[in-house]
Amino acid sequence: xxxxxxxxxxxxxxxxxxxxxxxxxxxxxxxxxxxxxxxxxxxxxxxxxxxxxxxxxxxxxxxxxxxxxxxxxxxxxxxxxxxxxxxxxxxxxxxxxxxxxxxxxxxxxxxxxxxxxxxxxxxxxxxxxxxxxxxxxxxxxxxxxxxxxxxxxxxxxxxxxxxxxxxxxxxxxxxxxxxxxxxxxxxxxxxxxxxxxxxxxxxxxxxxxxxxxxxxxxxxxxxxxxxxxxxxxxxxxxxxxxxxxxxxxxxxxxxxxxxxxxxxxxxxxxxxxxxxxxxxxxxxxxxxxxxxxxxxxxxxxxxxxxxxxxxxxxxxxxxxxxxxxxxxxxxxxxxxxxxxxxxxxxxxxxxxxxxxxxxxxxxxxxxxxxxxxxxxxxxxxxxxxxxxxxxxxxxxxxxxxxxxxxxxxxxxxxxxxxxxxxxxxxxxxxxxxxxxxxxxxxxxxxxx
Length: 448
What we know:
The protein is an all-alpha fold. It is built from 13 helices and no strands. The longest helix is centred in the N-terminal third of the chain and has 48 residues, at 2-49. The radius of gyration is 22 Å and the shape is globular. The relative contact order is 0.12.
């Protein structure tokens, strides 16, 4: 009788857990689908309104936002996301939020200072024509970075509906507002970026409105809680700084494909490549990111403060199985791209961009390899030791920069696409080795 009661209780708990995960997966899928669809529709709209050269300028300008995200606000967001669950478990949400806020304000001041110095450098170099686009890029970098931090914290709190809503809103709003401004003010890259900014202001305001639920749940601060503010700041900084060390190198890799084409080819080639990237690299990373967004908070909760080797072993085992699934998805998506690349370009881009459709499978393969590597890394990020990722991140980024330069100089767009696939493959193999090594270490510690 007692065994029957216990079995029924376990079944009920398990059922409730899977039901909750099912609901979360639904909302995450909906948000990611809305983001992907918005991106695809946006590419179609902007390629109709902007010539390849202007679209290329927009792609080059976006590298500024990528730099700020990779080096400053992205690492901070990773730390905020990772330590939400431990802060909630410790009943120290107020101190945690205060630490995050302090770090965001400090980072913003540093970003603005560097931007001012860079603006002076542009003027002295006689490149003042880039100032308008540069200012718009900086604003977008800050707005999207703040939004990413809020979204990551809400995802860690498992407020999936809110995250899904804003993912779709950001994707659709960005392109639609940009298209409206282009029709009103003219078809330039600066006007398009202004549209991105207006959309992100609205999304950020909406994000903060819902984020107040987390602020209110934190309660008021007492003296003891505020004393540990510095402790949370130290923990997040220790966790986040490795992201910043490799961030500058990964940014160089991400930006080098476009700038290499700008240097060795034309701005029009940059625009053509940017469309390939949007249709091939971006969707597969988004689809894999769907699962990352679902499992990361669950893994972080299971790992806790990462001091229990048995809990970490469970995380590594689950993540390894899911990584294999992501690799299978990459292969399937690449095969689909081989068969349907012509149809995809006929439906989703303007005629001026369709000459490069045959390169789509290579771009999908590159995106899939990189996304699978990012997926595998979750098990390492579930711990608090992130320094093991410095070597593979920096080394593969440098390899990527070199291959992008050589590829652009020798073979143009196809050279850059091939360089992306090779670099992503190297990154994937290295991260799989690290994850497997760490998994074996946890298995050994568990036996002891």
